[in-house]
């Protein structure tokens, strides 16, 4: 190229010599200035075009020296002259979560080739933070199909907060002007600062063509335990096996043969609470529980009148089951007996798990070990005239099979102490002491068992509602 320029310069000198001779010999001296100007223009303006016509095209139009201009992988237009990084990313919210997942490949990534080998440390650090955050957000979006929206948002929030934390750790470790948000010590205020500075808080698409994803340079693991408890419980309930109904429905039809059990054992039959039921999926169980509670309430009122209690209870039973089959504003219930209008009541009677009220008539077996559950009630309501503290402190902490032996031993010791004591004792105990030494423990045991039975019946009268699902 130098020799070509030298050749051009020689041609210029030749032209200059010829022109100077012509101008000097010319009878028009005023043309000398114009000739010099014309030759100067030729050299400085036309010589480069002559050089380009003889040189390769790549050597023409050279830009001033400086760093190479390259752009992100998605950039297809003119190459940028600066290293712009869309930093920081905005906070994930329920409003922008869909855009985070849908437009992930339409937001820029910054590969190592985007920057020169040296310099631009601040921009490189920010680009790395963006690359990591976008990679972690994409991980959360991949599981979006199996997670609920709230869980995906929780994952995205953790990824974004981790990217902020990692960036500030590196930024503050370098001797350069720190990013202003990283100077904030309060974590919530720091995160708000990053979110407010985001140039694209809605995570909208900013690239014309899809970009190639880049792997993260740091590890991110989603921890669902840090999410709100309600979100995880909702997630768990949705994936768990549905709970089975545990309700005695429908109740048997009251008759003259069963009315005594209906009235006398009403406190032994359960009432149901629907507050424990999930919001959806258990509508039929809730309706059945309400119906049982209303029927039992009607039975309680009918049992007060001995003459009409059978007809009253039967009428209340039929009324509530008719209401059960005709739910308000929703038409008929899809229950087998409700669809059989010709013999509806017989169907309910056959469907009843306890049609003759026999199951609820059975009393719970009472043993001496029940003193652990009833000793407070016995002391307040049914005192036996002697302390039961030793039974509670020595036998109740033991395993069930060991309680019986402990109770028998203490009963033997207590019998001897009571009969040998000179203190006043109840008449029931005095009569036991008149028996033989072998019969005395059994007699005192009957006194304790009687008090346990009374305390158990008293406690059962405090009817509590139970959940209709197990």
Automatic annotation (TrEMBL):
It is found in: Secreted. GO terms for biological process: regulation of bone mineralization; signal transduction. Keywords: Repeat, Secreted. It holds the Pfam family ECM1. Its main location: secreted. It comes from the Eukaryota. Transmembrane segments: none annotated. GO terms for cellular component: extracellular space. InterPro entries: ECM1, Serum_albumin-like. This is Extracellular matrix protein 1b. It comes from Astatotilapia calliptera.
